[in-house]
């Protein structure tokens, strides 16, 4: 199975370029434009490696690195445009496995990625730490990637599963369409709400007794969606 790499950078052009090059090199790439979205994605399922920009809007990369380390054990390579050595030193002390200074040669970055993955390949990625989650009649096991509803197994496509898990992790809280897009589909999909609308409809058809009058996957008009027990 292809290794999954999460790219966290607020530069849309760089994200697209990196995702393309990583996929050409045989990896599976996903993206996030903010630290907050990256942390939410990691809660859904642990990537094999994170490429993390230091200079992010909102929460910066170093704060994100510390939170990632508290949340999961997974390799992180810092991307930084700063020339000062302090960021690299602080980043490595905070737990980064390596750093690459922008602008970088893609072959150099790929070599660094391979080296870090070789060092960590024998270690668990942290996925096994994810416990089954129960919300009312719904139980989701992110390791086995299966879900049961009222004691019966539910056949979910991968994206349906990820969307349901994202809602279940924040049960009772409203998640906006853009939040769901960023967490489940990646930063490049923000602003394309149709994907969420369609998958919500499919989930309701599989989980709700009356999909036209849902009682569990609720629409909060003008805000987003929430899962209630």
In DSSP terms, counting alpha (H) and pi (I) runs of 4 or more, how many helices?
8
Distance between the termini: 35 Å
Q: In the CATH scheme, what's the topology name of the largest domain?
A: Rossmann fold
Quick one: biggest sheet?
5 strands, parallel
Secondary-structure-derived class: alpha/beta
Per DSSP E runs of 2 or more residues, the count of β-strands stands at 12
Helix fraction bin: 40-55%
What is the helix/strand order? Answer: EHEHEHEHEHEEEEHEHHEE
Output the radius of gyration.
18 Å
Poorly predicted residue ranges? 122-128
What's the pLDDT, averaged over the residues?
Answer: 87
Describe the strand arrangement of the main beta sheet, using strand numbers: 2-1-3-4-5
Q: What gross morphology would you assign?
A: elongated
Give the tally of structural domains: 2
Question: Beta-sheet strand percentage?
Answer: 15-25%
Folded structure, characterized:
The protein has 229 residues and is of the alpha/beta class. It has two domains: 4-128, Rossmann fold (3-Layer(aba) Sandwich); 131-227, Arc Repressor Mutant, subunit A (Orthogonal Bundle), CATH 1.10.10.10. Helices cover 41% and strands 21% of the residues. It is built from eight helices and twelve strands. A five-stranded parallel beta sheet has the order 2-1-3-4-5, sandwiched between helices. A four-stranded antiparallel beta sheet has the order 6-7-8-9, with helices on one face. Strands 10-12-11 form a three-stranded antiparallel beta sheet. A hairpin with a 2-residue loop joins strand 6 (133-135) and strand 7 (138-141). Helix 2 (35-44) runs parallel beside helix 3 (61-71), helix 2 crosses helix 7 and helix 6 crosses helix 7 (177-185). The longest helix is centred in the middle third of the chain and has 15 residues, at 106-120.
């Amino acid at each position: 199975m292809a290794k999954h790499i999460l790219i966290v950078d607020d530069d849309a052009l760089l994200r697209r370029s990196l995702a393309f090059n990583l996929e050409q090199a045989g990896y599976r790439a996903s993206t996030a434009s903010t630290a907050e979205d990256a942390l939410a994605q990691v809660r859904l399922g642990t990537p094999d490696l994170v490429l993390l920009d230091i200079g992010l809007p909102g929460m910066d990369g170093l704060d994100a690195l510390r939170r990632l380390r508290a949340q999961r054990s997974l390799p992180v390579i810092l991307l930084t445009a700063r020339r000062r050595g302090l960021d690299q030193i602080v980043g490595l002390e905070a737990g980064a496995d390596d750093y690459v200074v922008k602008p970088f040669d893609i072959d150099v970055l790929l070599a660094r990625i391979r080296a870090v993955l070789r060092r960590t390949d024998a270690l668990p990625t942290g996925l096994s730490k994810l416990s089954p989650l129960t919300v009312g009649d719904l139980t989701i096991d992110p390791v086995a990637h299966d879900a049961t509803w009222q004691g019966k197994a539910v056949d979910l496509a991968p994206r349906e599963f990820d969307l349901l898990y994202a809602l279940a992790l924040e049960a009772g809280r409203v998640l906006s369409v853009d939040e769901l897009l960023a967490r489940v589909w990646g930063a490049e999909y923000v602003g394309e709400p149709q994907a969420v609308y369609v998958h919500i409809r499919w989930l309701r058809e599989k989980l709700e007794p009356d999909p036209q009058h849902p009682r569990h996957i609720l629409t909060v008009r003008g805000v987003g969606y929430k899962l209630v027990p």
